[in-house]
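Appendix C. Worked example: Probable cobalamin biosynthesis protein CobD
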Amino acid sequence: MIVVTLAVLGLAFSLDLLIGEPPTAAHPVAWFGRLVGALDRDWHDDDRGQRLVGVGIALVTPLVPAGAAAGIVLVASAGHGTAGAIAAGVVLFLTISLRSLLDLTETVVAATETDLETAREEVRGLVGRDAASLSPAEIRSAAIESAGENLADGLVATLLPFTVLAPLSLPAAAAAAAWVKGVNTLDSMLGYPSKPIGTASARLDDVVMWLPARLAAVAIAVAAADPLALGRAREWARDPPSPNSGWPMATLACALDVRLTKPGVYDLAPDRDLPTVADGERAVRLVGLAGVVAIAITLLFATAVAIGQERFSLVRYAVMTALEVTP
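Step 2, the predicted output written as structure tokens:
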């Protein structure tokens, strides 16, 4: 099954490199976003009632994309094993976003030197902050921060469970990736302090992203050939409000030796200078390489799972054989 897993990953990342993000109208994540948008309303007059509804939304709605993904792979597999693998690869492709992230980051960084208004407009695709008053260096900082954070959200978070489960069951792997993407989408749309209905979604996302964020930080440090960047990042990793996003962002700041800041919220490596255009270009290359490292790390997990499954099967077969011949 490791060979099948490699083939499925190859398909998913080939599609990401060739296509990038599918059009919004044809993207299942956008369809799920419309469902979340329909649920984002006042169900109760008080915050407590809204939070209770939010618990149900957090628990139930990610099961919709998970069930759809598993069903598609199961139906395809029933026709032919290869069709099931292709379907699983397409599901994974729809839950990751590396090329689009790197392309947009590169566009923003370049525009800060040639067309500041375009940079302010384009950076909205990466961050939610108001860029109207940001300097060119602060816009580059925002883009680099987003590249680091979205390495975790847009790649590692869905890649990790998919790759670990794929040797065991492609439908389960597809379901896990789609479920995580659903949780991420809920958090991005509802997980604000001003939205009590999103409190549970934000907490669930914090739990789900704990490992991917730290794995993304490790991938960045390895890609930079600077493992000590992780140790230096510890000083600032907890400064952002999120318990997870600070790890890849701070590690990226340390690996690039630049200051990354969201004015009034956090300041990572504040004794360094804000990033130049050249720093931004280095960041794009580094995050891209970190994505490759993350794939390699998750494949190690998958290999361990496959070996464990094989050994379990051998032990089970030996036990069953021994029981059959026992008088």
